[in-house]
Amino acid sequence: MLWRFRREVIFTLMMFFSFFIGKTSLKSNISNSDIKIDKEKLLNYDEIIQENRRLREFLSLKEKKILSNFKVAEVIALKPYIFPAEIIIDKGKKDGIAENNLVLTRDIFLIGRVVEVNNSYSRVISIFNKKTKISAIVSSTKEIGVLEGGYAPFLLMKYIPYDSKVKIGDEIYTSGFSEYYHSGIKIGKIVKISKDTNSLFLKIFVKPYISSYDFKEVIICE
Amino acid sequence: MNRKLWVILEQVLIVSIFQYIFFNFFHLKVIPSFFLVYLLLLTFEGNVEIALFLSFILGVINDIFSKEILGLTSVRYLLVIYFSSFFVVKSIRGKCSLIFVFSFLYFCMLSFRKLDESFWDGKTLLKYAVLFSLYNLLVAIFIEILLREIKKKWTERIF
Fold this sequence. Notes:
The complex is a heterodimer. By secondary structure, chain A is α+β, with helices and mostly antiparallel strands. Chain A has one helix at 6-63; strands at residues 71-79, 86-89, 102-104, 110-117, 122-126, 133-138, 144-151, 154-161, 171-174, 186-195, 201-208, 217-221.
């Protein structure tokens, strides 16, 4: 009897197996895609929350009247990625950015200045760039020297007299005796002082306050 | 029986290789189904039980190739093979015309989902279904010759 309907029996059996395999594979596919979506969601939320926090900090600068006239730009490229000498930002001529505008972090630490402005983006040279020379002042002794880039991760402070009373941990600000930089912008603090007997000046290494975390959104001001 | 099993195994292997090559190296809009043609030819020769069993196996292999949900193609193959098993044809012309018809039906069944998601309209579906059936027709002639050669080789071989 069963042999007579062998075609139908095999067909039913195979159909059953196919549905069973299909159901199992569908279940595992759904659970895998759910896990992926959840992970993506979490990553996106984290990034959005962090961005929101950073932008709120920028807003608070205006509210606390620390800075009044500034623009916020997003960093779109870093060259090189670690201790960047050059930064590309997403604001340009059409956003009111001009050459020699200052670039600061949201904590008002100096990053660099704008050197090239295009219509929709601008190029910034950072304090790590070897072309950078900034007139800077030591917080404790008020002595003025020149801060130079090209010594990443540090900056080199030159022309501080040999007999100066500077010490490790002293803060360095911009002096204001410069064509481009206003006075009082924090740059970093002294981490190493070396005395060269053949020179009249100290060799002071300064660790900048800026970190890789600061190269996301930056402040542009005149 | 033992010889028949070897013949079928060799045929399945060769057909799978062709299907794999077409899946991966020929960037056609519609890929002919070697598996479907082979199963239909087996059915028309009267090997319905084997064809039904192989429908399941080859369907799973096809799903692995095309990264589909496992078992989906098996269901389609099983349905086509089950309904085609009611036809017994011996002539090449009869086989070809039935392969054309069943390939057309198979493609329509395959594309229901796409039609549902409004990827394709009815006219496009018809165009590709005819193209798929024509490709399968050519494949059928090729496989028919191939199967005959394999059978001949195994008949001549002495164990």
